[in-house]
Amino acid sequence: MRALRNAGLCVGAVIVGFTLLVAIFAPILATQDPFAQDLSRRLIVPFWMEGGSTNHLLGTDQLGRDYLARLIYGARISMLIGIMTVVTSGAIGVAMGVIGGFFGGRIDDMILFAITARLSIPLILVALAVVSLVGSSLTVVVMTLGLLLWDRFAVVARVSTMQIRTLDFVAAAWSAGCSRPRILLREVLPNILSPLAVVATLEMALAILLEAALSFLGLGVPPPLPSWGLMIAEAKDYMFFSPWVIMVPGLSLCALVFGINLLGDGLRDLLKTGRTT
Amino acid sequence: MTAPLLEVRDVGQRFRASGGMFAKTRQVVAVDGVSLRLETGGVLGVVGESGCGKSTLAKIILGLIKPTSGDVLIDGRSLTTMDRRERARLIQPVFQDPFSSLNPRQRIRDIVALPLTAQGGIPAGEIRKRVDAMLSRVGLDPAMGERLPAQLSGGQRQRVAIARALVLHPRLVVCDEPTSALDVSVQAQILNLLAELRLEFGLSYLFISHNLAVVEHVASEVAVMYLGRIVERNEASALFHAPRHPYTKALLASVLTPEPGLGIPETGLGDAMPDPANVPSGCRFHPRCPVAVERCSRDSPTTERAGAGIVECHLAPVG
Amino acid sequence: MTALLEVADLHIGFGGLAAVRGASFTVNKGETHCLVGESGCGKSVTALAMMGLLPANAERRTAALRFDGQDIAGLSEREMSRLRGDRIAMIFQEPMTSLNPAYTVGSQMGEVYRRHRGGTRQAALDRAAELLERVRITSPGMRLGQFPHQLSGGLRQRVMIAMALMCEPELLIADEPTTALDVTVQAQILRLLADLQTELGLAILMITHDLGIVARTAHRVSVMYAGEIVETAPVFPLFAEPRHPYTRGLLSCVPVPGKVGRDEPLGSIRGTVPRIGPNFAGCAFRDRCDLARPDCSSPVVRHTLASEHSYLCQIAP
User: Fold this and answer.
1) pTM of structure
2) Which domain, by its residues, includes C30?
């Protein structure tokens, strides 16, 4: 049972790690230019199908761009969005949750109200509205998602802080003459990191899916950037005659989100059972 | 007359307990008009059952919560006039649960060093020297300083907590049930260690416990708390040999000494459990008191001198 | 005196670690047998083994486990669960976790009764009310309708005891029943157990770490250390003439009013309990014992004195 969960953690880590490496080394890995169109070579099939060529391992899209190169550069967009969103929303959410949980009273009431207000906002509608008002760009997508996805961080950080705050080692730190910021940073924060790490993986998967959804609706990253969601959107007209154009980015997206969730689950089990050094 | 080391002056602590959004808020009286004195070198035992307010009193004396009324003075100076560093140099705590009293993410060395680092301005080498010395003094190998709390036994952890409390050489140590979570043989080791350290460092203890046998062993003076008030206080020998308050008598009778053949004592106490959110009228002990008379449910008893101490009961012998 | 529960050479292990190593003891009808020891000595695991409630990863083997003359070591889970709560009942340290917070006291007590005895809901409730009265709970009718969180710790433990007695068990296993309670409530609960024992002829297997409770409640005592019963004796000889160095050490650790003066050290046992691996041999206490000799690392023979007093040490007189 335990080994199985650890296997999940390993598989998740391999998938996420692989995608991250692909994203970082995209210029080296991609032998073709993901933006170069060649209308004479449209919708070439992948190499394993009849008529495929090793020149375009995953074939080309409807504009004759190399599909493998677009997939590799697309990983960049997904990872960038995932990580940047988690960093932004994590910073906002953890700060709010820790402050609310630590100080309590009126401050906590205000934070709790903010969380409730945020939870009552329909995520995708607001994202759509913002993007259609401001116009779509990578920065706008990251900022919108980052400013919306902090709720779970705030809830988890707040509850964990409230639990830690009442423990005797915090009382001992007060008695030792520690200052408030020191207690927050050295006594409280390190002890709420493990549940937050799990939240971070969940939010990262969510952010990647939301970006894909927005791009699919034409409100995410603007063409010709090779986002996986955009690739799915552009492929949908050709899916009946060339099903692989939708399957390649679709399966990649599935695998990445699945990998992140496996990583999160594994992380939770690992951190729960205590650590030894 | 010089000021005592610790003087607690008529301290009270009320909390508002809310039963949810639509429930009426109730007032919980955790501590009610408590006064105590402790001279340098003494050990003041505070005994009482759960919910009697003894842990709240400990937190007030440590300066962790501000009392709603009254004042706590150390060496004649109010706690409220001190900054956190000065307070830390005078009072330190040892808590009950050695599992929650040490930060699981920090090495033992850093835990013990915390009061020193919080003072600021002490060079790292000096801190290291003092931490090592303190670890060996409480019976731990300084090499253990590199470990995490999870790698230590309960008794070892409590030694770490004691080392942290003493590393600044405070004058008063507030021990809140320091051995309740430990096995008997470990309890004896820790009690012996605390006794040695008191003489060696010239410490005074405020020793809070529900175990009267332990308090009898360590304390020079004992205060008995019931529902937030001190119902009897006296020199330890006087209190244990001639208890005056019926609650003190019941507590003493409940102590099960390891002597076979004595059977199980009849405390005579009623079933009405004390509830700090609903303090009875008159004497707050009357619903459980085996000797209560009609007057006890009506009039609150006043604090009377009794020998070297005090007692708060209509029926207790005074003078 | 007839034996109700007989355990011979009980071994319980978790993975490679031994929790109980060859424990043998007997609980007689109408008597209290105390298993005393410090945390990790195997006393609670022994209690769970009696109830057939060991966790799945535990390995148990025993030469004999007899209840009222019947061998219960080989019973199936189903047969065991018929015995549990009916003829053998158990109460635990923390009554809050053994009561279901979602059901009233009455329905939980009634369910135990109807599972073993059948009958109508009303008959079960009447029986529950009768038992609440028996454990000295005032206004039992009102308590039956209450939920566990509405009761104080002492009341909850009384309810647990009443629930354990629903089917008139012959053996009650009590695992640290008063550890979570205040001292005055502890005295009340222990008194209640002693009274019930006389009224109902109950046999009690009491698991505790508190030597005061042992002295005041036990007829016979077994002292456990590192999975072994190092000394067993009727209560008077055990406290008057303890033989095993561990028993002696333990007794000297307990502060007794008027025995050891202030500023005088209590007796103590140095060191900590050793880890018992698969190849451990000899006396488990030797590293902490002041009398230890080199031959303490070879297997120890049990010494038996008169009056059913035996101990596991080759040095003690």
Assistant:
1) 0.87
2) 3-87+170-311
